[in-house]
Amino acid sequence: MNEQSEVSSTDPEVVKAIPRSEKIKQVIIAIAVVLLVNFIAKRALWPAVHRYLESRDPVEAMRRFKLFMLIFGLCLLPLALYFAVLAGRILRSRQFPYPGATVWRDTRIVRGRRALIRGWGLAVCALAFVGMAIFAAYIPYTVASKPHGHLSVGSGK
Known about the structure:
Blueprint: E1 14-15, H1 20-53, H2 58-93, E2 95-96, E3 107-108, E4 110-111, H3 113-144
Antiparallel strand pairs: 1-3, 2-4
């Protein structure tokens, strides 16, 4: 028998990585998407947000700020959902990476307590993003409860 083709029972189980050409393609696509989003944000989104948030009326400015921060907080929720789904898959399978996961490097499978720790870590990350989303929506209410007369727009100072 050929010794190289045999796998002994002491060798760790490994999830094989995707091919190098697929990795390169994914990196190029990710960089292109980031550059495109950055370009659109700088040219169209941020100037529009800035114009929207400008207001001479402090009450209207605070209402707009509250809406903006609510939307910002809502944008964090998909990331929290992603981490929660990953954590759920790892916790249910008691294996990291979970069965069927795509990996970029050959990755040794971790089972048992160590996999559960990784799953719970991702669950904590998901809760942290939910907390940040709630806090982002809460910030305007803490600012609104304090007097800021010297900060009002158009005070001439």
